[in-house]
Amino acid sequence: MKIKMLFSTLLVFSAATSLHAQYFDPHTDLITGKSPTNNITIPLKEGYSLDLGRGNKLFIPRVNSYPGSKSGLKGLLPTAQLIEAVKATYARFKDSLQDPLTVKKIQYLDFNGKIKTLVSQKPATEEKLYYTADGQTSMVKPQMDSITIARVDSTANYYRPAVIIFTLNSISDFSKVANSALIDQFIDSIEAAIPAKVASHAPWKYFMYGNYTLNNQNSFSGNLNSTLNVQRTFTIGFSADIQNIKNHFVPSASIGISMFNYFKKQPNSYNGFGLYWTPYFFFDKDQNGKTKTYRNDFLFATYTTITDRKDIGNKLDIFLPISLGYLIHRKGDFLEKNTFGFNAFGVKYGNATLKPFIYFHNFIKGVTPSIQLSIGIGK
After folding, report:
1. What is the residue range of the signal peptide feature (predicted)?
2. Do 212 and 102 belong to one domain?
3. pLDDT in tens, 224-272
4. 358: domain range?
5. If residue 331 lies in a helix (H) or strand (E), which one and from where to where?
């Protein structure tokens, strides 16, 4: 009778999994009740922008930190030499860059002291945009002019690239807005604002971006933001399982809590850690020939990683769970004292998994292999 009840439970659980998968996959956070994939916000660009007014902007892309520079931008300082070199380049080509309807670009590269310069222009689109600020209106081309200044030092132990990008209504505005003292001050403020803990971690672990506005020719205001490239959720998970252990058909159930880490640049990929109570049900006949149930409880610590789940969908796929459990309650002689259970990979189809297990006691004694079929949600 108990076996029939267990089978019925498995069938009901399987149906419930199909009906409620939308609520548990992706995993719903216990605290907010929301799916992490709906809350993930990724900055369009990592770096630091300074609005120079009248549609002109300066942008410094984020680069890796290195010893002595949290921002990785100190190699640009002082910028006066770079700014003056670009002004000299523009002066040489000024007569060829007079057409107001073309989009112009100057790219200046200092690579270990060797200078390379590229000047280009191309026809603009016919679309016209207008920018109004403080009662003054300026025409903004759909494709603005730009000046890119880069300096690379590869002679030290660390590869040190750094870039400054100006986007301008007209390339002739460069001499008006390119204030090297202000740019140096801007870089110094970024250097000071970056938290030491962010600079000490690998760049992919944090997003870094800042938005600043020029108040006058000598000052600016704004904020630098750093956010973890991860969103954590806590979920309750449970499963119904079937396995064969020492020639015994053994159903089991599992319930516990998991913490999942969703990476914002890969919203369909995540990993998770969990702790689960898992009772195993063994059956045997007593001296009167009646079937008795013997419950043996494991406590499992789990780790799971899923890569690009959107592409996997309901396809058959190999995944990499790791489970290590310890027998915390023993009844009967089916398992030895101090028994462990271990699993390191599996095959997944939707909410169903097939995983090989081994059971052993007293550190790799009496190893028993097993195959577990499981249907679970929230794990």
Report:
1. 1-21
2. yes
3. 999 888 888 899 999 999 999 999 999 999 999 999 888 877 767 788 9
4. 2-39+230-377
5. none
Beta strands in the chain (DSSP E): 47-53, 56-61, 102-111, 114-123, 129-133, 136-140, 145-153, 160-168, 206-216, 219-228, 231-245, 248-263, 266-285, 291-306, 317-319, 322-329, 339-343, 346-349, 352-361, 365-377
Final residue belonging to a domain, choices 228, 248, 272: 228
φ/ψ of 310, rounded to 5, equals -60, -40
- pLDDT for residue 36 is more than 70: no
Sheet containing 47-53: order of strands:
114-123, 102-111, 145-153, 160-168, 56-61, 47-53, 206-216, 219-228
Could you give the dihedral angle defined by the CA atoms of residues 330, 332, 336 and 339, in that order, rounded to the nearest 10 degrees? -30
Q: How far apart are CA 242 and CA 283, in angstroms?
A: 13
| 31 & 131 share domain | no
Please identify, among 180, 206, 228, the residue that sits at the C-terminal boundary of a domain.
Answer: 228
Instruction: Tell me, letter by letter, the H, E, C secondary structure of 185-246.
Output: HHHHHHHHHCCHHHHCCCHHHEEEEEEEEEEECCEEEEEEEEEECCEEEEEEEEEEEEEEEC
Strand partners, 149: 108, 164
Structurally, how many domains does the chain consist of?
Answer: 2
Query: 10 and 114 share a domain?
Result: no
319 & 275 share domain: yes
Q: Which residues pair with residue 347 across a beta bridge?
A: 318, 354
pTM score: 0.68
